[in-house]
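Preliminary data (for renewal application), beta-D-fructofuranose complex.
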Amino acid sequence: MTFDSKNRYRNIKDAHADELENIEKIVNSDHWRQKFHIMPKTGLLNDPNGLAYFNGKYHIFFQWFPFGPVHGLKHWAHYVSEDMVSWYEDKRILIPEEWYESHGAFSGSAVIKDNQLYLMYTGNVRTKDNRRKSYQCLARLEEKKIVKDPDNPVINSIPDGFTNEFRDPKIFQKDGSFYLVIGGQKENMTGSIAVYQSKDLHNWNFIGELKTGLENFGYMWECPDYFELNDTGILLFCPQGLKPNKDCFNNIYQSGYIAGDKLNLDTLEFRHSDFTELDRGFDFYAPQTFEKDGRRLMIGWMGLPEIEYPSEKNFWVHCLTIPRELKLMNNRLVQSPASELKKLRKEKETFSENLHKQKIKLPISGTVYELLAEFSDFSGDFGLELRTGPGDEKTVLWYDYKNSKIILDRTNSGEKFGLDYGSLRMVHFIAPVIKFHIFMDSSSVEIFINDGKETFTARIFPGENSSGISVFSTGTAKINLSKWNLA
Ligand code: FRU
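Predicted structure:
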């Protein structure tokens, strides 16, 4: 099926009888369907949107085009959970039907006001001559459906000096006001963030541009998110147009943060440290955070735009990451898998050995599991081969002892994709004990290094039977390993 401008901009209400059910049959025959990650029933998922804990339930929305694995007319799909582990489809989805969202209900966020859940999002419009227009819109979750505000678009212009690449309102509350950070592009083709203030969610004032020390840092900033942890202000955003720099910025677009003093909302000055990538892997973008009981939780899109992924032939593509808790350590963010995920653990298997210049294929195997491997007393390279299978298939996570680097190698992970951006990712890392904490699903791997000081996130597309696990070392290394199958 090819998608021209006509079938790319259909909304779900225009689906023919059985059309989506038939697509679902193809999708569900795919062995790369994930077991514990949020993914689209059919079609394409991208950014997580509207994360919130509301009336005893977690809510997550995501950018969704139901009819196929392309960036078509974006809806907001909706899932709810009581524990962030089991997610159920919620039929109250955001369907773009109004003039101000004719080409998609783009990304945005949620806020609770007067015990109601409100959503702020970008209405995306393409004019006849294909120019973009961008409107900021308000909606409310009601008992039976999502209701769009009659005053939409609540922000219908772009501030002076910005282009129409202007989107992704993230809302936060401070001192009795609501604030929005909106990602954008300046007329001089640099990325930037606009800040708005409101008392009532309806009337918004543009209060200025966020003043960072990053004057010329890519041509567009998408998906900003501002929050405070302890007394530190943190701004997440996704700059586009950065050049690769050694081990950094090797994906098509980046996702990272700057941390510093709390944002001064009078002057919009933000004093901060250098930009740090949130993830060292291949497939991580457009994360969003929310707060629950003092915990700051983050979920990202496990994918990137403009790259073809192997599952597209089965009419679906992409998924979200697991929820991760963020904490600050020496002014840097550390990420740990939300503790709720322990609920997924089934039987535990362990393995310990003093390795000496050898590779051992473990009696333990699997395709959907959590694995914790601790290496100590090492005098050479060491690591793990995961999802090993016929044809020397393997995903290798290893420590390069001489160069003190952790390396994720997906050169032989299975079906190849995204090769324009290379098949190795690495980060400089020094510690006497190296811990790999791994969440493996049918077609992804998320790796937390030493309690989340670094993370690597990647999609992989191995053969159905590639389930082996090996450990190796070129010198000595002591390994302690635990593995739980996940259900
Ligand atoms: C990021 C993004 C956002 C936009 C959305 C559209 O992946 O480009 O800037 O709102 O995706 O789906």
